[in-house]
Design brief:
By secondary structure, this protein is mainly β. The chain is built from 1 helix and 8 strands. The protein has a domain of 143 residues. Strand 2 and strand 3 form a beta hairpin. The relative contact order is 0.23.
Length: 261
């Protein structure tokens, strides 16, 4: 007789396993179809726009202190990771962004202390940073600044019409939320030279001087509002969707109007 699993407070109980057949062969087939999407009357989408693909070279020199003296390095593994990658649009050149990068080269070192014995394992991070001005191929969106201090002050005349009412006031402030420029690490390499130093009387060393060429291939992206071709965009003005709406041309135009008030 099969055991009654019953119900419990953890949800539906699992079903008991059944016998499994032996499968000799499986044939599969497939069809490919073109992608189909929604036809927009106002063909505008928010998408990540590649601004540029940037190649950066960092020249790094560092000293690594081993926990114990080493006779020979058996294996050394290198991995690159970025801890920070920030980009801002340059005010000196609209075709340029300033890139601030902080990263580490993680090194896993395996070595022996003598001709025989256990292999020691030691991991260390070698930090590096780069500040670079890079040119972009697609331009980032124009940056807008916020007005948060009480500069546009609203004052009212007093009941006698002889001056300002000191008991009533107001202000107009605004904040504009710009899209940040994001970084995506596509590829990296490490080309290094290891110099063994601080040898003892038995020829073992405790310090490694690293001279590294670190290569980074980074894609800069920014989410932008992009216009797509539309079936409404014809030579005949009567077929244009732009004639149907008499307000501001876009939300950007509406925001600009508010910022100018």
């Amino acid at each position: 007789m099969k055991r009654n699993t019953g119900c419990n407070s953890y949800g539906c109980p699992p079903q008991p396993n059944c016998d499994q057949a032996e499968t000799f062969r499986v044939d599969c087939s497939n069809n490919s179809y073109p992608p189909d999407g929604k036809h927009l009357k106002y063909p505008v989408v928010d998408v990540p726009v590649p601004l540029a693909e940037v190649e950066i070279q960092a020249e790094v020199e560092a000293d690594i202190q081993l926990p114990t003296a080493a006779r020979e390095i058996k294996h050394m593994r290198r991995n690159v990771s970025l801890k920070q990658c920030k980009a801002i649009r340059s005010k000196m050149d609209p075709h340029m962004v300033k890139l601030y990068i902080t990263g580490v080269v993680h090194k896993n070192i395996q070595y022996v202390e003598s001709c025989s014995g256990n292999v020691k394992d030691y991991s260390v991070d070698v930090p590096f940073n780069c500040n670079q001005a890079v040119y972009v191929k697609n331009y980032p969106d124009h940056e807008h600044f916020s007005q948060k201090n009480t500069v546009y002050e609203r004052r009212y005349t007093d009941k006698h019409g002889m001056g300002a009412d000191n008991c009533t006031s107001g202000a107009y402030t605004y904040e504009y939320y710009n899209q940040p420029i994001d970084c995506k690490l596509l590829f990296s390499f490490v080309n290094d030279l290891d110099l063994y130093k601080d040898h003892d009387a038995w020829g073992r060393f405790k310090r490694i001087t690293e001279k590294m060429e670190v290569g980074l291939f980074i894609k800069l992206l920014q989410e932008q509002q992009v216009a797509l071709p539309s079936k409404y965009e014809k030579d005949d003005a009567s077929c244009s969707y732009k004639e149907e709406y008499k307000g501001p041309k876009s939300m950007q135009s509406r925001i600009y109007d508010m910022m100018r008030d």
